[in-house]
Design brief:
35% helix; binds D-xylitol-5-phosphate; single chain; globular; binds zinc ion; eight-stranded parallel β-sheet; TIM Barrel; 221 residues; alpha/beta
């Protein structure tokens, strides 16, 4: 069995009580915190920036923070997020003019780097940067909002990404983001994912531990 990680997306958390919400999902068994950054330019929504990441660290969050940048341009925010305590920084290749440079900047800043692919995008940009990538994130919805339905074509793309990653020999994580829940996590894992973002499936449930336990039980089944 793979080493699976559950990554609640705080986009669906109660922002008025963000510290408590993050504590609660981690206490309920989550592995990493998925942190969605939207700029009302690359995506039609506006969320949170480095100050909030820093505040979570100050609050005492020690778990990895997985910063998903849905912003353009990318590079100017890398240093700010590294300083704010980001663990992973992932970005969309079409949001950066020089993808190789952005990946290198993330690693130079001491973080793990990742590339994110939208539902319609192929994996071609990965081919020549596999040695600079720690995470590949496949969007299974169009980025911008929580609570959307999983796009089934992602399963084929996950299989393709898994083949590429395994052939590369690099220890690259394969993350999936959007519409993931207890009803589909098993087939998503079977297609090759090892890191599962779930926003509404976790935060809209009354009992975070019960959902996370069910997600893990599905992965173990
Ligand atoms: C969408 C975000 C996702 C989102 C997932 O643009 O990147 O992380 O919060 O939410 P759910 O799990 O509700 O689809
Ligand atoms: Zn995300």
């Amino acid at each position: 069995m793979r080493d699976y990680l559950i990554a609640p997306s705080i986009l669906s958390a109660d922002f008025a009580r963000l510290g408590e919400e993050v504590d609660a999902v981690l206490a309920a068994g989550a592995d990493i915190v998925h942190f969605d950054v939207m700029d009302n330019h690359y995506v039609p929504n506006l969320t949170i920036g480095p100050m909030v990441c820093k505040a979570l660290r100050k609050h005492g969050v020690t778990a990895p923070i997985d910063v998903h940048l849905m912003v353009s341009p990318v590079d100017r925010l890398i240093g700010d997020f590294a300083e704010a305590g980001a663990s992973y920084i992932t970005f969309h290749p079409d949001a950066s003019i020089h993808v190789d440079r952005s990946l290198q900047m993330i690693r130079d800043a001491g973080c793990k780097s990742g590339l994110v692919f939208n539902p319609h995008q192929g994996l071609e940009p990965l081919k020549y940067v596999l040695d600079k990538v720690d995470m590949v994130l496949l969007m299974s919805v169009n980025p911008g909002f929580g609570g959307q339905s999983f796009i089934p074509a992602t399963l084929d793309k996950l299989r393709e990404a898994r083949t590429l990653i395994d052939a590369s020999g690099y220890p690259i994580r394969l993350e999936v983001d959007g519409g993931v829940g207890t009803a589909n996590i098993r087939e998503i894992a079977a297609a090759g994912a090892d890191t599962f973002v779930a926003g509404s499936a976790i935060f809209n449930a009354p009992d975070y531990r019960a959902v996370i336990d069910t997600l893990r039980a599905e992965l173990a089944a």
